[in-house]
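User: tokens in, sequence out, please.
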């Protein structure tokens, strides 16, 4: 039998060793808990509150000339450590901070409650102004405040004021960035992955520490000076007409580049939170994301179909009666009268609903054939599908395909003059571009370059014959020359100008009826100089004509007058040179087509 191998001496030695180790461990734990505990808790809470936010340097956005539109700035986050403040002072410190930061009463009460609970870490404000940061530093240095920390944080900054009060430039076009670094709306949302930097752009250094990720930079096609001028013009029209909104887009009809795009009212993208609480609808860009019935601007597309098929030419006489009976439905002109047999070019110039409806029915032997012919032109001109512009939430419009759901005769007539079809202003701009640029459908785009590398907008597609485009271009010029006041409001001396108005009724879905006297007012057209031209679409949203004119009720600032003012701004900013020896009432030097003769009737154009 073996003897025992344990001994009392060995047990005592082991016990002493364990006791010494435990004592050393206890001392170390006491140091971390008491000496470093508050700081460790603060760091842990900060990591939980802001995971990696300071690791991203969002890329810049500039205009076509390099002017900074959006960049990353640094504002300080104010954090507090209420557990390090004596219980009797916690509420007082919270209230003093609330006063310094001008917090609302509800937010003040919330902050006081949080402080009095003695939590280890709380974010008081995520973005201090420079003045607030300076004041808090001063009070910390003087001992009036304690247990606070100022932590630098990258924030999105939009440096340019917009064209109306309390806005930043191109707010709906650019969008904004939330506190957690996510782009919302516009370019910021569409290009979130590029601007915010995906994980592949993170650079690691020694000991597993990451340096800040750097997002890609984007250069836009817009001109900041033109954008500002456009916003100022829209603001003036918004005030004058007491409209719900006023929007416009300026497009290069040869490349599809968006030179300016805006809607008033806009918002301050640096301070988006108040807008989110009170008017979130202002975040939506009406140019690309909101559809509406455009009215008689669509008569130009009906003209394109009719001239292409040869069912009429510009001199063909169409009978414009005071009413067109279609089953139980009656279609009337805006002035409730008729002009008799007039030339087709004057049907468009004087915006005659009845005559346009008759021409639409001539597009085919049956209603379905005519509907297919009109719908085909719409499709070729981009109506009914997204343009593909680099903006979030673009709408494709609301267009009924007669192959899927046959149009009734009243559908054909109504759609021929722009009712029962919904489009975006950007779609209209692309369609009008094709009608004046030789028949090529361009791809509207807003991005000119990424990280310094040019980005093409895509090859235009030939959708109309060049000769038809020239005819439509000349027809648009005839429209704006047709009446004295109309020409005076629209034409720009020394430049070729053409276009078409639209004044569309608005359906009230809640009431189940048309809104009384409230309309959408649109003008789409072009301004051409010696070596360059622009296509402009303006929309005055949901407003009433309140001014009595010789020719009827009108807006204080009409859509065609707004178009002219926007066009004059484009001429000035883009340095568009006038046409040599060009006389507006004479021959169009671009397409060589003579304007209408003086035998054409000369009433004032209506704008249905």
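Assistant: Sequence out:
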């Amino acid at each position: 039998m073996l003897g025992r191998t344990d001994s009392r001496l060995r047990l005592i030695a082991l016990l002493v060793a364990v006791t010494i180790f435990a004592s050393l461990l206890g001392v170390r734990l006491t140091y971390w808990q008491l000496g470093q505990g508050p700081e460790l808790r603060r760091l842990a809470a900060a990591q939980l509150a802001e995971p990696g936010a300071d690791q991203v340097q969002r890329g810049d956005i500039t205009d076509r000339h390099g002017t900074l539109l959006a960049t990353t700035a640094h504002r300080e986050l104010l954090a507090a450590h209420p557990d390090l403040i004596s219980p009797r002072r916690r509420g007082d410190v919270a209230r003093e901070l609330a006063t310094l930061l001008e917090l609302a009463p509800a937010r003040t009460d919330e902050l006081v409650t949080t402080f009095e609970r003695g939590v280890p870490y709380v974010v008081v404000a995520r973005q201090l102004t420079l003045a607030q940061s300076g004041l808090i530093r001063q009070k910390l240095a003087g001992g009036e405040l304690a247990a606070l920390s100022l932590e630098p944080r990258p924030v999105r900054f939009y440096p340019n004021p917009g064209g109306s009060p309390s806005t930043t430039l191109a707010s709906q076009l650019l969008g904004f960035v939330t506190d957690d670094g996510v782009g919302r709306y516009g370019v910021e949302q569409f290009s979130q992955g590029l601007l915010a930097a995906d994980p592949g752009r993170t650079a690691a250094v020694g000991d597993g520490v990451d340096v800040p990720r750097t997002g890609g930079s984007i250069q836009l096609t817009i001109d900041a000076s033109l954008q500002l001028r456009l916003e100022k013009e829209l603001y003036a029209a918004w005030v004058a007409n007491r409209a719900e909104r006023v929007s416009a887009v300026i497009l290069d009809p040869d490349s599809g580049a968006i030179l300016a795009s805006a809607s008033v009212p806009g918002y301050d993208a640096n301070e988006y939170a108040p807008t989110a609480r009170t008017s979130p609808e202002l975040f939506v860009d009406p140019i690309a994301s909101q559809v509406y019935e455009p009215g008689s601007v669509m008569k130009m597309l009906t003209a394109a179909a009719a001239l292409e098929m040869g069912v009429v030419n510009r001199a063909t006489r169409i009978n414009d009666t005071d009413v067109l009976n279609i089953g139980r439905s009656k279609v009337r002109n805006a002035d409730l009268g008729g002009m008799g047999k007039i030339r087709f070019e004057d049907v468009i110039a004087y915006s005659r609903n009845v005559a346009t409806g008759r021409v639409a029915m001539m597009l085919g032997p049956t209603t379905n054939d005519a509907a297919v012919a009109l719908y085909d032109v719409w499709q070729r001109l981009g109506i009914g599908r997204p343009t593909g512009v680099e903006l979030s939430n673009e709408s494709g419009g609301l267009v009924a395909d007669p192959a899927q759901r046959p149009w009734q005769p009243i559908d054909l007539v109504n759609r021929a003059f722009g009712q029962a079809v919904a489009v975006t202003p950007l779609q209209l701009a692309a369609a009008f571009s094709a009608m004046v640029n030789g028949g090529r459908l361009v791809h509207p785009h807003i991005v000119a370059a990424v990280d310094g590398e040019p980005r093409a907008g895509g090859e235009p597609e030939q959708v109309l014959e060049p000769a038809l485009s020239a005819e439509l271009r000349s027809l648009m010029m005839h429209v704006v020359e047709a009446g004295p006041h109309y020409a005076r409001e629209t034409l720009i001396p020394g430049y070729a100008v053409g276009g078409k108005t639209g004044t569309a009724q608005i359906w009230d879905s809640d009431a189940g009826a048309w809104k009384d006297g409230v309309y959408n007012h649109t003008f789409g057209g072009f301004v051409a100089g010696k070596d360059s031209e622009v296509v402009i679409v303006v929309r005055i949203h949901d407003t009433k004509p309140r001014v009595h004119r010789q020719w009827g009720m009108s807006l204080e600032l009409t859509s065609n007058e707004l178009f002219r003012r926007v066009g004059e701004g484009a001429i000035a900013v883009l340095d568009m040179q006038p046409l040599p020896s060009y006389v507006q009432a004479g021959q169009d030097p671009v397409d060589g087509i003579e304007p209408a003769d003086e035998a054409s009737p000369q009433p004032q154009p209506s704008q249905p």
